[in-house]
Amino acid sequence: MDHATIVEGLLDPGAYPHPVDDVVHLQTHISSILLTGSRAYKIKKPVDFGFLNFSTLELRELNCRREVELNGRLAPDVYLGVEPVRFDGEHLTLGKGDGEIVDWAVAMEQLDGEHLGVGVLERGELTRDKLDDLVEILVPFYRNARHGPEVDTFGEIKAIKFNTDENFVQTDSYIGKLISRDRFEHIKHWTNRFYVEREELFGRRILEGRVRECHGDLHLDNIFFSDPPTVFDCIEFNDRLACGDVAMDVGFLAMDLDARGRPDLAQHFVDRFIEVSKDDELRELMPFYKTYRAYVRAKVAAFTSEDPDLDETEKRRNRNAARHSFGLAYRYAGGTARPPLVVFYGLMGTGKSSLARLLREVYGWHVISTDAIRKHIAGVGEATRVWVPYNTGLYSLDMNERTYAESTRRAGDLLDAGLPVAMDGAFKTRAERRMVIDMARGHGADVRFVETVCDPDEQRQRLETRQVYDTRSDGRIELMERQRREFESPADDVADLFEQLSTDGPGRETRARIVAHLRELGMLEPPR
Questions:
Q1: CATH 3.30.200 region(s) of the chain?
Q2: In a designed cystine with 323, which of 237, 387, 400, 416 is the match (CB 3.0 to 4.6 A)?
Q3: Whole-angstrom Cα distance, residue 342 to residue 423?
Q4: Could you give the residue range(s) of every CATH 3.90.1200 domain in the chain?
Q5: What is the pTM (predicted TM-score) of this model?
Q6: What are phi and psi of 338, to 5 degrees?
């Protein structure tokens, strides 16, 4: 019986051995979680990613039992045991009873979601005192965790490098989509150089007993900040990912806090852990393990984005999360290169789109078209022509605001991955341009605005031609002068980011000029 059918059957409240009013289904890339009100049940997906293998019923049972055992170290009151999922020919049930065992579930107490770390942080309630309480639990946990020669092998460079090499191999297919080639190579080179330059440090950590059977997945989604904090959902499926330097766990939570906009709390957590554990050398490893953890998070999000059980919205959310985490890994690894962002803006019919297409088709840039996004938001086909009065309907002020906000957000997601981006839109107001400038600065991008201009008679002729031959464009002659009157000049404080490009004359000459200019600015490399 396939996983989706099992989950669907267990959405029936009558499938459980205790009273249930409603069942809520959550999922990750490797598990489905069913919340019943008093208890939660986790069922592993039949997947094999190499670093984990739940592909058979026997392997899923084995890993369920190991999950309960290992999580008993930090959350003994949460993990209740392992229950069979049975099918009697008509119905699925969970627990004791008749019927064939078709899967296994980890049974847990369902804790109050109000205390989950992400929500606590988002409400502004995650304090330094709460992190101090967490440290008081973690330090003795690591002190008492399994260690010795068998565990020490996972602290050796060859073992750690196996993991990082695997990450690079498994993410190669995402180059150019979720991470740029340059950023990928930078992170890989930086990681391998760290092994060489800090070889003695890695060896010393083993001798000092800093390599343990850790939690392996220490981030805010796996911490309930109750009193005292409860840490759950450790890695059970692969010793080489769970065992290692305690800095691996510390770096994960610090990275998570950084990624969620609280580097101050990340720094406090690291400082307090060092103080209580008396592990001063741990600080030297933070850049390495933060890079590693951010990269793993990106990899997991990339994998999840290809899960056939997810809808397109969730897939897109995971692609964007992967780009963000790849960007974070790049910055942890000392990356400073600024991804290029060129905004082709100006009046309708002046040649913005043709220049953006040039960068996409010849140089592999990603293009964000405000026209395409506007129609996507409205649920209108991109090739559908929409003719409405000026500033109404699809082109109302409210729709303009939504369009430019979404266009800017999407550009930021691509810049996070270090990918070159061209934006194509009118951007007739200073506010619309300021939104892009603020976003670009936040993502460390090198941004330029290129206003395409041409003779009004030429513009009119182009719009006339469009109306006959181009079914996609909504620009019309009767709107041209109204748009010209409302078009705002660049703000003085950012005027150095703006320039004009005449598109009069043969198109090949215009294209040659923009290519030469962007190369002169260092924003354009030769086609690969």
A1: 3-110
A2: 416
A3: 6
A4: 115-332
A5: 0.80
A6: -100, 120
Ordered DSSP codes for 277-304: HT-TTHHHHHHHHHHHHHHHHHHHHHHH
Q: Where, residue-wise, is CATH 3.40.50.300 in the chain?
A: 340-520
Q: What are phi and psi of 369, to 5 degrees?
A: -100, 120
Segment 270-277 shows an average pLDDT of 98
What is the C-alpha to C-alpha distance for residues 351 and 466, in angstroms, rounded to an integer?
A: 12
Give the right CATH number for 3-110 from 3.30.200, 3.30.1340, 1.10.357, 3.40.50.
3.30.200
Q: Which helix (H) or strand (E) holds 341?
A: strand 340-345
pLDDT tens by residue, 178-222: 999 999 999 999 999 999 999 999 999 999 999 999 999 999 999
Superfamily of domain 340-520, CATH level 4 = P-loop containing nucleotide triphosphate hydrolases (3.40.50.300)
Contact 10, 92 (CB under 8 A): yes
Residue 251: what pLDDT? 98
Q: State CA 134 to chain mean position distance.
A: 26
- β-bridge partners, 453: 502
Cα–Cα distance measured from residue 391 to residue 340, given in angstroms and rounded to the nearest whole number: 31
Q: What is the pLDDT of residue 10?
A: 97
pLDDT at residue 526, as a whole number: 79
CA distance 115 to 97: 35
Geometric angle at alpha carbon 106, from 102 and 108, rounded to 5°: 145
Dihedral in degrees, nearest 10, Cα atoms 77, 82, 83, 85: 130
Q: How many residues does the chain have?
A: 528
Of all helices (H) and strands (E), which one includes residue 90?
none
The whole-angstrom distance between residue 419's C-alpha and the CA centroid of its chain comes to: 14
CATH topology of domain 115-332: Aminoglycoside 3'-phosphotransferase; Chain: A, domain 2 (3.90.1200)
- Sorted by sequence, the CB contacts under 8 Å of residue 152 that are 6+ apart come out as 206, 211
Q: What's the CA gap between 457 and 401, in Å, rounded?
A: 30
Tell whether the model's pLDDT for residue 394 goes beyond 80.
Answer: no
Report how far residue 173's alpha carbon sits from residue 164's, in angstroms, rounded to the nearest whole number: 16
Cα separation, 164 vs 157, whole angstroms: 10
Cα–Cα dist 131/296, whole Å: 24
- 253: tokens are 């939570």
